Amino acid sequence: MKKLNGGVCALEDVLASGLHAGFKQQKKDLGLLYFPKGVKVAGVFTKNAIQSHHIKYDQALLRQNHSFKAILTNSGNANTCNGVVGDETVLQMVNTLARTLKIQADEVLVCSTGVIGVPMNLNDFDKKCARLVCQLTKEDSLSAVEAMMTTDTFAKQLAYEFKVGNKTVKIAGITKGAGMIHPNLGTMLAYLLTDADLEQAQLHSLLKDVVGDSFNCLTVDGDTSPNDTVFLASTGKVKITWNDETLAGFYKGLLELSQELTRLMAKDGEGATKFVEVIVKCAQTHADALKIAKGVATSNLVKTALYGQDANWGRIISAIGQSQPEYLQADKIAIAFESEAGYVQVCKHGVGLPFDETQALAVMSEQSVTIIIDLGLGVSNSKVWTCDMSLDYIKINADYRS
Questions:
Q1: What does the DSSP assignment read for 257-305?
Q2: Any binding-site annotation on 5?
Q3: Which residues are substrate-binding (predicted)?
Q4: Model pTM?
Q5: Which of 131, 164, 262, 270 is 20 to 30 A (C-alpha) from 305?
Q6: Overall fold of domain 275-398
Q7: What letters, b where the CB count within 10 A reaches 16 and e where it falls short, cover 223-247?
């Protein structure tokens, strides 16, 4: 795949903008993606039983299976648990933007992220929407990303082009998320776009599968947000004859994009000093491999040991057992750490191995560390991405509302 510049604006017929509207004390907090010719959209949402007001609204619109022209995003306020006022806020945002763009209200999707339980102040929202629309440009994907960010430390956007059959297609994605991120999505918003012509049913099937193999394989802190939303949209510009081969080729590219965005979120975990990949090999079933990988990646004891650059395999084997896989034999487990500094095995047949502490420290001191767990039972594998947990994670979240 060839990497492109421009984020989602690498695709034709996509305009973007972002500005400061007052939902946060400073920095951009209102963003817009505009599709003059319309796009087909599929979405997946949080599994948290408490959900942002935007989710019910978006889900109802997506069931209508029609074209959309705008995705409006605010950060700094989650618009969650605000009662009837929260529902009215969604409608006010959507209707105001629709009037400004001179489109139908049901052509607008909306997402919010930020502090939970605080009603949104929409004073002068019509003027802010007017500015937002006035600033739309083919060159400003970055501003739209920045307007999504909360505790993120850098913008996350990617674009690629690649061949599907004999056609060249483009895919692009923008996402936010650094904390309250756990498998089954997290406090994350992600918008994936392609110019490949796909029906909504195809988009939904592709999105469901790709989320399971990317965003749902990410954990930062074990908390699942009420606001999680991932959209996959198609401009339909590139007509493709779809069959098993072309769908598989497109899915491969979409998965690569989604996994790279996922890794960027793990690297930007709140207060993180390390990107961590947990690989589980030779499980009896894929479900067990994934359950164990998530269990290890979610363990605060494992994550703090990683921050301390401590090859403490005891915490890992404890997390393996705590994840309660269906099939597990302790005397077959092997554990190792790997990074650019080398490889060190610390456990075999379920017992500790003597290892060079100096070499282990060198391995654990790298910014990217891989935990490799071999269960010795079968042929199923899985991987999950996470980060370490530092003192800064506590500081960031202790001060989140201030």
A1: HHHHHHHHHHHT-TT---EEEEEEEEESSHHHHHHHHHHHHH-HHHHHH
A2: no
A3: 150, 176, 187, 270, 397, 402
A4: 0.86
A5: 262
A6: Ubiquitin-like (UB roll) (3.10.20)
A7: ebbbbbbbbbbbbbebebebeeebb
Residue 2 labeled ligand binder = no
Residues 6+ apart with CB under 8 A from 160: 1, 2, 3, 4, 170, 171, 172, 253, 256, 257
Please, are residues 344 and 364 in contact by the beta-carbon 8 Å criterion? no
Q: How far apart are CA 313 and CA 336, in angstroms?
A: 8
Active site residues: 187
Give the right CATH number for 2-267 from 3.40.640.10, 1.10.3720.10, 3.60.70.12, 3.20.20.370.
3.60.70.12
Please report where in the chains the tokens 């994907």 appear, as a residue.
Answer: 141
3-class DSSP assignment, residue 34: strand
234 has binding-site annotation: no
217-262: per-residue pLDDT in tens? 887 655 566 778 999 999 999 999 999 999 999 999 999 999 999 9
Q: Give tens-digit pLDDT for 279-291.
A: 999 999 999 999 9
